[in-house]
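REVIEWER CHECKLIST
Item 1: Sequence provided? yes
Item 2: Single chain? yes
Item 3: Sequence as submitted:
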Amino acid sequence: MEVQRPMSITDLLLPHYRHMLTALSGWLAKAGEGAETETLLSARLAPDMFPLSAQIRFCCMQGYEGVARLRGDDLPEIWYRLAEESRHAGDDPGTMAAAKQRLDEVLSFLAAVGPGALDAGAERTIAIDLPNGMIFDMTGFQYVRDWAVPQFDFHVVTAYAILRGQGVALGKADYVQHAFAYLRPGTMPQG
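Item 4: Structure as written out by the authors:
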């Protein structure tokens, strides 16, 4: 059995991003390829919500943003590009291939972040400036707990719900596929 140690911000945030972005990529693969999948990217849960293509971009943005903010870096150019694409996703949802490429790019970026690379950011003061003028001030720890994880999860869950609502055959096992690494041998139900 693995020895437990205190969880750091890096230990919490990076695996969470990687697990859920990998799951999202798998959901898109289940959705398939073809003309009907391009209309799927325009699907929404409600008329006043962003479409699936924007939800995917927001998930990618969160991966870049969390790393940058905790390291004290400027937001990368890709973050701004994704933000711009998201604002116009209703008119130009893009393609399924482009969505999968965005996911692959952020997963590669996250894989290159070293162990403990975000931990020094736990006490860093982080200011979140929203376009509507609101500003949130928090420590790095508060940012991870109260902003980064909830924001990311909102967009992941919304993407899941859109896909499920559009008839993509997804279930809870697709959402928590990373947990199967811990499945005790011989306990998978048969049939």
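Item 5: Key structural point noted by reviewer: The radius of gyration is 17 Å.
Item 6: Recommendation: ____
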